[in-house]
Amino acid sequence: VSAQQAPQLTAADADALAQPGAVPAATGVAAQIGRSAQVSAGGRQYTYSVSGATPNIFVILPQKLGGGRFYTADEERDSVRVTVLGGEVAKKLFGESADAVGQRITINGVGFEVVGVLNTKRGIGIGGDPGQAIYVPYSTARDRLFRNEVSAKVDVDFLVIKARDRDQIDPAIRQVTEALRARHRLSYQNNDFTVLNPQQIADQVNGIITGFNAFLGLVAGISLLVGGIGIMNIMLVSVAERTREIGLRKAVGARRRDIMFQFLIEAIVLCLVGGAFGIALGFLFAQGGTFVLLNVFQAEGARATVTLGAIMLATVVSSLIGIAFGFFPALAAARLSPIVALRSE
């Protein structure tokens, strides 16, 4: 659940939803507030998104520890200045081999002790990327870290709620909506909050990917059409320039199908050469994509590859383009009269 442009979510909302029986279809509720902040350690300074969250965030959005521990409910209650860092954040601040647990960092000038480091494995989801995460206790963020940026009455950006199972997602959404509307005294007004369903987010992402793939398919189709027309024009020019050669071959016994087969083979070879260049470019782009994934997005184990299936598909499509757009020039060459062709200069 997220606050809309005029935020209306509070810590009291989180406490109310966490009460037994308030949301029967859910197993946990976590309050979360996030801001961009300057994070520094050992003379290194970076800008990161810092999340203040109640400790059960690590249960609702399961995270794996690479070292140390998660902060506790007691530390949350006492607004202790402790933090759990994403693995990539720890590497940037303290180096590849250094142990960040027990070290100190500053966030917007406020000192924090690192008590845990998340596994460096990256992944994008509703919980974000654990490699780039920085978590501090919610009360610490609200009262000490972001106190000048948080309203006295509105102090929560998100309420993260976990349904009991997949079948309980819709009931949980309905129960949360009803509970918040009752707490905010919304009789006929629109919701002053937004409920986000991970499945809906996934469907939206899949829709975007499908649309992007359709666009790429359209671009590829237009490119193939233009390339095929280019091949046909090249072959027509070749037929015109080799008219006398065609006549000579026919005069010494070459049949129509021999001439046609010759020019079809030439068209297919041209397309296959173009396809080979395309495959080579594909390998180069894959290497570039892998470099970006590993070094820019720090996506461990990610690799962009050109599969054998893609190579075979490119080869087959190139051959079909050669046949389709080389057929007319080959037919024109096969139909030339040997007498007329031999007279050609």
TrEMBL record:
It comes from the Bacteria. GO terms for molecular function: transmembrane transporter activity. Coiled coil: none annotated. Its main location: membrane. InterPro entries: ABC3_permease_C, MacB_PCD, Macrolide_Exporter_MacB. Keywords: Cell membrane, Membrane, Transmembrane, Transmembrane helix. Residues 5-178 form the MacB-like periplasmic core domain. Residues 218-338 form the ABC3 transporter permease C-terminal domain. It is a multi-pass membrane protein. One of its GO terms (cellular component) is plasma membrane. This is ABC transporter permease. It comes from Kouleothrix aurantiaca. It is found in: Cell membrane. Belongs to the ABC-4 integral membrane protein family. The chain crosses the membrane at residues 214-240, 261-286, 306-334.
